[in-house]
C-alpha cells in the first residue's frame, strides 16, 4: 500500500476531486465508481477502509458505515495521467451498489432495471465467467450439453475425465509443447470446475484459498 505522500502526485479536478474505480481483489470485476478528495484518500490510507467524497451531500462518505458493506483496501494505483484512481478492494457482504447488487455495472439493455441481488453480475476474469456458465448448466440443464452429461454422470464420470485430462497435461509437459500444454491446462481447469459445481464449491472459494496462501510460510 502506498503512503499519503502519493497525494502530491495526483491531479485533482477544479473541485479538488478525482474519480476512483473500485475493483474486486479476486476476480477483477469493476464494482463501482465514485469520487475522492484529499481528505477521503487520507482517511482511506489511514484506516484501510475506503472513504469517498459525496458530491450530493458535500461530505466525507465512509463506504459501508450505514449499510455494513465496507470496502477494505487491498491495493491502490493511479493511471498514467495521475487523474484516476484504481482501488483494489475486498467488499464486505459482496454488495457494492446501493440497490443491493454486487456491482453498479449491471445494465446492458436499453431499459434500466431496478438492480438488486438478482441483477446481472459484472464481467470478471475468464475462469470466473466459465464457472458461471457451468453453474448455469447445473441450475438450468440444456439438452445435448457436454457439461450436463458430466454433471449427470456424477463423480464417476467427472473424476474419470479429470484423471484423463491430468495425464494428457503431464504428457504435453513431457513433450515440451507450449500450445498443447496450454490446451490441456484449459481442459483440466474446465473439468475441475465441473467437479466443484457438482459438489457445490464456489470457484470464488478457490480464489480465496489461493489468495490466502500468498505470503504464507514456505513449505519445505
Automatic annotation (TrEMBL):
UniProt-listed Enzyme Commission number(s): 3.5.4.19, 3.6.1.31
Keyword set includes Hydrolase: yes
Associated pathway: Amino-acid biosynthesis; L-histidine biosynthesis; L-histidine from 5-phospho-alpha-D-ribose 1-diphosphate: step 3/9; Amino-acid biosynthesis; L-histidine biosynthesis; L-histidine from 5-phospho-alpha-D-ribose 1-diphosphate: step 2/9
Reaction catalyzed: 1-(5-phospho-beta-D-ribosyl)-5'-AMP + H2O = 1-(5-phospho-beta-D-ribosyl)-5-[(5-phospho-beta-D-ribosylamino)methylideneamino]imidazole-4-carboxamide; 1-(5-phospho-beta-D-ribosyl)-ATP + H2O = 1-(5-phospho-beta-D-ribosyl)-5'-AMP + diphosphate + H(+)
Region Phosphoribosyl-AMP cyclohydrolase: start-end pairs: 1-126
EC top class named in words: hydrolase
Keyword Nucleotide-binding set for record: yes
Listed CDD domains: NTP-PPase_HisIE_like
Annotated compartments: Cytoplasm
Entry's Gene Ontology molecular function annotations: phosphoribosyl-AMP cyclohydrolase activity; phosphoribosyl-ATP diphosphatase activity
HAMAP family assigned to the protein according to its UniProt record, in alphabetical order: HisE, HisI, HisIE
Name this protein carries in UniProt: Histidine biosynthesis bifunctional protein HisIE
Originating organism: Cyanobium gracile UHCC 0281
Amino acid at each position: 500500500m502506498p503512503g499519503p505522500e502519493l497525494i502530491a502526485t495526483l491531479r485533482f479536478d477544479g473541485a479538488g476531486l478525482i474519480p476512483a474505480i473500485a475493483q474486486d481483489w479476486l476476480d477483477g470485476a469493476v464494482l463501482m465508481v465514485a469520487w475522492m478528495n484529499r481528505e477521503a484518500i487520507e482517511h482511506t490510507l489511514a484506516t484501510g477502509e475506503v472513504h469517498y467524497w459525496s458530491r450530493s451531500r458535500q461530505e466525507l462518505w465512509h463506504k459501508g458505515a450505514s449499510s455494513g458493506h465496507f470496502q477494505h483496501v487491498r491495493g491502490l494505483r493511479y493511471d498514467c495521467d495521475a487523474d484516476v484512481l484504481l482501488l483494489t478492494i475486498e467488499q464486505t457482504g459482496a454488495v457494492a451498489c446501493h440497490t443491493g447488487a454486487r456491482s453498479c455495472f449491471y445494465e446492458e439493455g436499453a431499459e434500466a432495471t431496478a438492480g438488486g441481488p438478482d441483477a446481472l453480475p459484472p464481467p470478471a476474469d475468464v475462469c470466473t465467467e466459465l464457472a458461471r456458465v457451468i453453474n448455469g448448466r447445473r441450475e438450468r440443464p440444456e439438452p445435448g450439453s457436454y457439461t450436463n452429461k458430466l454433471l449427470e454422470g456424477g463423480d464417476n464420470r467427472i473424476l474419470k475425465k479429470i484423471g484423463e485430462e491430468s495425464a494428457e497435461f503431464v504428457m504435453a509437459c513431457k513433450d515440451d509443447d507450449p500450445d498443447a500444454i496450454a490446451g490441456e491446462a484449459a481442459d483440466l481447469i474446465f473439468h475441475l470446475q465441473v467437479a466443484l459445481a457438482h459438489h457445490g464449491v464456489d470457484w470464488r472459494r478457490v480464489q480465496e484459498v489461493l489468495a490466502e496462501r500468498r505470503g504464507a510460510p514456505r513449505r519445505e
